[in-house]
Amino acid sequence: MDLLWSGLRQAFALVTGGDPEVWAILRLSLQVSGSATLIALGLGIPAGAALALARFPGRALVVSLVNTGMGLPPVVVGLFVTLFLWRSGPLGGWEILYTPAAIVLAQAVIAAPIVTGITLAAVQQVPEKFRLQLLALGASRAQMVRVTLREARLPMLAAVMAGFGGVISEIGASLMVGGNIKGQTRTLTTAMVLETGKGNFEVAIALSLLLLALVFLVNWALTAIQQRRAG
């Protein structure tokens, strides 16, 4: 308990004292995870909607792959992204390994199946008769999809929460592709591992509390939007 209280005091001191390194880590964590979530939304929402509305041979296999991807271990993603970005890898020419861009890429790969799977489930909840009625009333295919997505927008907010929560708290991929470089690629989770390894438990607890506070604030804001629209 002494360590916990010491961590709480340290967290308060770090935040109120305006520690530049802590704020830089917080800012980088929010930037890379926010960017990865936006990329995942841009890829996952169209893919999830297409899987929910389309019927084609092999669809069940694709849906199974998406569901499997929702539980993809981040360390596996980190390994394959590292191999692709390595100097001799297919994307080695990008020269972004051990940069924030590499972390964004890895986190987007983690979040995209989550967003796709939740979007798929949300769109499937819209009754098929409703979609058929839209088409019968003269709506085009594109208009039907747009209206269907609007009807599923509240459940789809869960995709944003799950996608962001899945990447802001992951460590394996960020550590592998980012390298935990001070002032460049150090995020809240990788900094926690470093401080724990050094025996600085108070700092690690402080960083963990800051991470929890960040996740809570983002999800609280999204939940408020969801519940207000539902009401």
Describe this structure in words.
This protein has helices spanning 2-16, 20-53, 59-69, 74-85, 100-124, 128-136, 141-151, 153-168, 172-178, 188-197, 201-230. By secondary structure, it is mainly alpha-helical. It has a single domain (2-230), classed as MetI-like fold (Orthogonal Bundle). The chain is globular. The mean pLDDT is 88.
Present the secondary structure layout.
Layout: H1 2-16, H2 20-53, H3 59-69, H4 74-85, H5 100-124, H6 128-136, H7 141-151, H8 153-168, H9 172-178, H10 188-197, H11 201-230
Helix pairs in contact: 1-11, 2-5, 2-8, 3-5, 4-5, 4-9, 5-8, 5-9, 8-11, 10-11
Total number of helical segments?
A: 11
Name the poorly predicted regions. none
CATH homologous superfamily caption:
MetI-like
Oligomer: single chain
Radius of gyration: 20 Å
Distance between the termini: 42 Å
Largest sheet: none
Element-by-element helix/strand order = HHHHHHHHHHH
